[in-house]
Amino acid sequence: MTSYEKLPKLIERMQHLVTYLDCRNDLTIHQHVNQSYYMQKIVELKMLLRQSEESNRTLETINSRIDNHYNLCFLQWYKDARWLNTYQRLGRTKAIL
Predict the structure, then answer these.
(1) What is the gyration radius of the CA atoms in the chain, in angstroms?
(2) How many C-beta atoms lie closer than 10 Å to residue 19's C-beta?
(3) How far apart are CA 59 and CA 37, in angstroms?
(4) Is 70 in contact with 62 (CB distance < 8 Å)?
């Protein structure tokens, strides 16, 4: 799996290659290296990286909501369980009526 930290550096290197090729219009260079390929891939990688960042933000929001709901539910459950345990202990020694 590709490390997302490496992606910006690769994009930068590919951009440098495109700039280098743009400055040198030798036919021999352009016959062996496809500049438009790199230009297209730079755009695609940037788009995918942006989508990944948006997804990560969404996932963080969802995880935060899960944590909040978990904490609220756990606290309510804990309170109710303690109350029921106390009620059961008292019910064993005393009759309700």
Answers:
(1) 30
(2) 11
(3) 32
(4) no
CB atoms within 10 A of CB 16: 11
The residue type at 15: Q
- The per-residue pLDDT for range 58-74, each reduced to its tens digit, is 999 999 999 999 999 99
Which stretches within the chain are classed as H helix?
7-23, 27-32, 35-93
49 Cβ contact list (under 8 Å, min separation 6): 4, 7, 8, 11
Structure tokens at 25: 């219009």
Calpha distance 94→54 (Å, rounded): 59
